[in-house]
Amino acid sequence: MSRPTIIDVAKRAGVSKSLVSLVMRGAPNVSEEKRQRVLGVAADLGYRPNAVARSLVRQRTNLLGVLLSDLHNPFFAEVIDGIQAEAAERGYRTIIGTGDRVELSEARALDTMLELRTEGLILASPILPMRRIAEASREVPTVLVARGSRSASVDSVANDDTAGAALAVGHLASLGHRRIAHIDGGDGAGSRERRRGYERAMERHGLAGEARVVAGSYTEEGGWKGVRALFSRGRAPSAVFAANDLAAIGTLSALAERGLSVPEDVSVVGYDNTALAAAHHIHLTTVDQPRPEMGRTAVRLVLERLDGKRRAARHLLMPPSLVVRGTTAPPSNAPGKRRSR
Amino acid sequence: MSRPTIIDVAKRAGVSKSLVSLVMRGAPNVSEEKRQRVLGVAADLGYRPNAVARSLVRQRTNLLGVLLSDLHNPFFAEVIDGIQAEAAERGYRTIIGTGDRVELSEARALDTMLELRTEGLILASPILPMRRIAEASREVPTVLVARGSRSASVDSVANDDTAGAALAVGHLASLGHRRIAHIDGGDGAGSRERRRGYERAMERHGLAGEARVVAGSYTEEGGWKGVRALFSRGRAPSAVFAANDLAAIGTLSALAERGLSVPEDVSVVGYDNTALAAAHHIHLTTVDQPRPEMGRTAVRLVLERLDGKRRAARHLLMPPSLVVRGTTAPPSNAPGKRRSR
DNA sequence: GGAAGGATGTGGAACGTTCCACTTTGGCCA
DNA sequence: TGGCCAAAGTGGAACGTTCCACATCCTTCC
Q1: Whole-number Å distance between alpha carbons of A128 and B316
Q2: Domains contained in chain B, CATH given
Q3: Pairing mode, strands A93-98 and A63-68
Q4: Is B267 helix (H, G, I), strand (E, B) or coil?
């Protein structure tokens, strides 16, 4: 009644279990006749190799664990595309776990992966404390995606938020904007770097005097409140760089409520290039992160350590790129002219 | 250099491996003194139970496999929330695999789960042919989510698309609309049922003569083209029921391009209640599926079979609900009056 | 005082593979 | 003919657990 094993196949085919093992793994030096016989019996019996037993004896699972902080965030889907593609090419299988933004369940998921003896771990912006992550990295090569790290034992690959912010500011400045404001991302990941990148880019463009940052968050509401703060006092900006796409959408809503049209009255730039940003209806100019490439890179980092090629930690920053869509245009008072510093 | 085993712990603590095993599993009838000693040594050594070995001897893994056709579709994230919650409550762990809409990689992911000896399988609208799914179901209890099935061996839980469509039509009819058109979902999952539900609801409301279906798809473009077909010939509808949210957003774009405002000139209803629909900027009236509940139900169906409580297949249909937002209003010519049949 | 029995602890078999060392077979060449 | 070697196939140990049957010790009770 229970699943057939390699021994059942061997008995039925009249050969040794070793030979069945060889056939199942496609080894050479097996006569064509026996190969066919074994394969036939295996199919008849519905035999399926037991990865559990195999992993135990081989002392390796060929499994990479991917821990996602949040399945709801479409950002990670594309990272995983890259992870899976690269892993498949290198002969590894992937399993995904998630903690849904709850530290306890994230820890549980991590334990599951570790107990299943995944050979490497890719953590996509986990909320777990660094201490736990460092602990895991002692058991198995671990890389952090989209969460910075200075750890000596945990690699990381993130997008260069500073450069991305500079891209946004550069685009707006070259359209002729001077009063470019920033609605920041609060304590969200990368938020500090984006703000810093904004400030430095403003300086580089000779617009330090025009720089203005208001508090926000990585949510629609954050963008919405940011607009309220920006337009209720002081001189209104002609362009807004929001901390991410969600905040940018909140910005769009708030601007519409105030009767300001985009991009005629105000230009808006987001960050992340989510599907939301790409929707026709929104058509948001935004900064894109090379997500699949980040995923591929994460796998490469894990495998470098697995192959024993490296011991020192690496912290990679991928270059973001600008995606120009319909929410940016020259300011109404200064059409299209480029203003360099 | 390699990972410590139960035997290393036993030696160091001066007890038998059996006792270590008992301690690790929190068994009673272990003296407090030895328990502490074993726990201490285990912590010192960084011992972590090997789920691979445990699974092999226990002949069970306590693992449920979830196969996702498409990580990019946020629909599934909430289904998984429900799956994970229910699984955790029942003492099961979950691993997620995905095929990213490619049959071959979906098959690979399925094989991985089966070889890892997951005890049950939840397939979220897989693209795999039914034959392969039925095969899998012979090895392990299998349930299909958001994909219908009449199979005798595979359970399924889906949303009642017919009822959902009726909800949409009922809402529009009660607002006073008569010329309610439907942009359908082509060959997408559930599309036929939604169309059928639309047609029957129109009949029930005495609007059979006004019913009009145009070909579309589950994409923005599908909705966009649908509007072109609807408004280029024949009498223009006062309300559109799009096959899903994406198509509804395409509909909104196309209507805006034609200078028609929503909901003043035309009402629009979508299906799925995605995050996109909820975004302030879009604020789409739509039909919601009880996603987390679908996930929980899927787990229950798997466990029923696992516990040997059931052999016959069950095919469940969950009731959808209407989410009224800003894209629907009474038609301009017939304000608010309810027209029953 | 001794039997009964509960509490605590132990050794070995088993789970389903892989891998290593070994055997058998047969072909080829001097 | 005999010796060698490659090709094909085999048996058993090992992987790290759990579980079962059993052993030992201590308390309790008649």
Answers
A1: 37
A2: 6-49 (1.10.260.40), 61-160+290-319 (3.40.50.2300), 161-289 (3.40.50.2300)
A3: parallel
A4: strand
A71 contacts in B (CB within 8 Å)?
71, 76-77, 80-81
Helix, strand, coil percent values for chain B (each to nearest 5): 45, 15, 40
* Averaged pLDDT of chain A: 92
Interchain contact B53–A (C-beta under 8 A): yes
Tell me: the pLDDT tens digits for A295-335?
A: 999 999 999 999 988 999 999 999 999 999 999 999 986 44
3-class SS at A273?
A: coil
* Predicted local confidence at residue B188, as pLDDT: 84
Interchain CB contact of A55 with B (< 8 Å): yes
Residues of chain A with C-beta less than 8 angstroms from the C-beta of B2: 59
B109 near B98, Cβ under 8 Å?
yes
To test the contact with chain B by mutation, choose from A68, A71, A83, A153 the residue with the greatest count of B C-beta atoms within 10 A, namely A71
Terminal C-alpha separation, chain B: 79
A30 touches strand D (CB under 7 A): yes
Terminal Cα distance for chain A, rounded: 79
Percentage of residues of chain B with pLDDT beyond 70: 97
Q: Which pLDDT score, from 0 to 100, does residue B339 have?
A: 34
DSSP B26: T
The DSSP element (H or E) to which A32 belongs, if any, is helix A32-45
| DSSP conformational letter for B289 | -
SS3 A48: coil
Residue of A nearest to B48 (CA): A115
In chain A, whose CA is at the least distance from the CA of B57?
A: A53
pLDDT band of B335, cuts 50, 70, 90? very low
- Which positions in strand D are less than 7 Å from the protein's CB atoms? 7-12, 14-20
For A2 and C25, how far is CA from C1' in angstroms? 37
- Nearest of B73, B282, B218, B246 to residue A282 by alpha carbon: B282
The pLDDT of residue B334 is above 70: no
B30 CB contact with strand D at below 7 Å: no
Protein-to-nucleotide distance from the CA of B53 to the C1' of C17, whole angstroms: 12
Whether B224 has its CB under 8 Å from any CB of chain A: the answer is yes
- Give the gap in angstroms from C-alpha B186 to the nearest C-alpha of chain A: 21
**Per residue in A62-89, pLDDT tens?**
999 999 988 887 888 899 999 999 999 9
Lowest mean pLDDT among A101-105, A289-293, B53-57, B289-293: A101-105
Query: Is A98 at the interface with chain B, CB within 8 A?
Result: yes
> What is the widest separation between alpha-carbon atoms in chain A?
88
